[in-house]
Amino acid sequence: MAVAYLFPGQGAQDPALGPVVRERIPELFDLATELIGCDPFPVCGESTRYAQPAIVLSSLALWQDLAPLAGDALAFAGHSLGELGALCAAGALTQRDAVELAVLRGELMARSGEERGESTMLAVLKGTIEDAARLAEDFGLHVANDNAPGQVVIAGAVDAVTQARGAARERGLRAIELDVAGAFHTPFMDGAREPFAERLTQVEFSTPAVPVISGLTARPFTDPRAELAEAITAPVRWREVMLTLHGMSIGRYVDVGPGTVLEKLVERNLEVAVA
Questions:
Q1: pLDDT tens digits, residue range 200-258?
Q2: Catalytic residue among 47, 80, 112, 119
Q3: Where does the Malonyl-CoA:ACP transacylase (MAT) domain start and stop, copy by copy (predicted)?
């Protein structure tokens, strides 16, 4: 049976996985700690600058259990930050580069959010992508994640998000403000894109063993340097990624972790069970 392995992004951090990472991939843990200036796990809930490296380290540590059994992999995909883990698992990116990029990405996005002022994200539940896009447009916000039918995230300035949340109720939509300090995957992250793109020019990418589906295009990566950089300010097209994988006749989906967020999104998108 053809299998797709999925790597989660922001929000999947788990401080309890610190000891697991330290035991399984000590060199990478030490690398991240040195680059950041501290162990990211105890503080991973405080800022994306700590959450992003903690998530990638966790995924790489958990992947060690799955890699020997992954001969049936037909595709990989990662949600936002998770693309670094997916490219790594597919053999397109070294583990060291994945960790270094995660540290830099987290720092740049945290700094960009701080420089642009208070911003956040709003999950719009029920309704269609068109309903969420219309709500975003009406309040000067941006679609950030198209995760699944009835689950779209919009983002922008805090005041505008607050207004949009009230309007969503009036329109029969359910809206939940997310506990994040930044409007990720929107123009609010412009300050992070160029320096991240510059760093990516120094990274060597190999041809992956099997396709890695990009959240930017919902198609296999063809130019990871350009696509990873552009994705910082562009929406995550996860619903379409799921449809692409479904079109590849994937019969089983494995959420590598940490967490089970992507497992739930697979079920919501495709109404299939997840291993």
A1: 999 999 999 999 999 999 999 999 999 999 999 999 999 999 999 999 999 999 999 99
A2: 80
A3: 6-273
Catalytic residue status for 246: no
> What structural domains and CATH numbers belong to the chain?
3-115+186-270 (3.40.366.10), 117-177 (3.30.70.250)
pTM: 0.96
β-pairing, 119-125 vs 3-7, is unpaired
249 labelled catalytic = no
User: Which residues, 6+ apart, have CB-to-CB distance to 34 below 8 Å?
Assistant: none
Compute CA distances 258 → 100, 145, 240, whole Å. 19, 19, 22
- 125 and 169 Cβ atoms separated by less than 8 Å: no
